[in-house]
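Question (not urgent): is this output format expected?
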Amino acid sequence: MSATPPLAPIRPAAHVDLLGAPRVAALREASISLLEDVGVHCPSAVALGIYEENGARVDRSAQVVRIPADVVMAAMARAPRAWTLGARSPAHDVPVDGSALYVATDGCGIETVDPATRERRASVKADVAAAARLADALPAVGFYWPLVSAQDHPATAPLHEIDAAVRNTVKHVQTETLMGAAPARYAVEIARVLAADDADLRARPPLSSLVCCIAPLAQDADGLESALVFAEAGLPVGFMSMACAGSTGPASIAGTIAQGDAEIVAALVLLQMAFPGAPVFHSLMTGVMHPRTGAHLCTSRPGEVAYVAGVELAHAWGVPTLAGVFGTDALEPGWQQAEAAGVALTLCALAGAETGSGMGLLDACTAWYPEALVLDADLHERVRADLAAFDTSPEALALDVIREVGPRGHYLDVPHTRDGLRAMSFSRLTEQVAADGSRRDPVEVARAEAERILATHRPEPLDEARGREIEHILRAADGDAATRSGRGSSA
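Got this back:
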């Protein structure tokens, strides 16, 4: 067994209002206008009933919900501003309160670059487990999204991903693939197994969920109904818009942001109508369509501001955010991976994001390279150091040492030099120099580090009794899925 290192979140010395209050207000007013006048498509009869009972205008024939401004504002006022993501290890709980930025892995990719063969192949449950162990060993990873999908369990993949995750990391687990009320109930049962009791489940929820909206201006029935199950149990739920400027959003960054915000807020309003005070979060991760190829660009020069806008809009609504801070279109580890992530991570941290995601996947968030997660963690550490409060204490200024050395002296034989350099944090990837002065390719160093961690790191295991209970839940879920499949039902 290996000890999981303490979390190392980013704590900026200051927060910056990057967009400015008037621009954020304009975006929010545009979103309110869309919710009231255009509406959002909602194919869930359960959700339509909740909306209708709480003052929204529901067109059941078209399955469109229009929400008056006063109803939106009243519902959002019930959402809590801060709460906690509980971990299997209490020392690794994540306070979602604005005190720091905690970043998660990305998900849910469909391919893995096999650590042993280096072949790119379809991902399986064992890869979810391996990625969780790697994430558990990296202090930069605040909580774990299953990085890839358990495609060897197609009917109940999200539940098997949760199982692989909670057995291989002591950190909080957030699912981003769970859809439908029935699977959500099984997931809640797993969360109950992990929690000490119902009060602990609500105070330190060990599992949370992210649900994607459907652009433009639509919701997914299974997504909404799984979210309602989680919210009823007190488990945090967030909604993400991935509207793409030029295809599923207007060819305008501001317009795409406003549309995406409307999609998110419509869903958050639903949860507050059904379960006032339910912990929720806002996640805006829009893209841009390439004008010549039609490709969806996760990161682009025109679209970078959208991630910052998402952070500041979430705060304007009075809820925490999950910011897009690492997703990349890079096809393999290298400069493009770092260039895209560094800008978004720095800006969103300065804007005060509480949580973020995106570490470890490449190729538009589809492929997991083990070394990519190590490289992202190293970049996280660089940004963490850059944004931390700069030390100007008497000890840091070292005026006594400077006076001792004086003009034209040197510091090589001063004891302070040894102690000071040892206290500095250097990158193990980019600042390694061999005794002969040679340097290694950082990607090769990261690959070796990933291999070392996967070979040696074993976090505290899940106790056997809880493990057996989760196995029982999975068998029931697998059997239920097989029965529904035999009936030809998608319920």
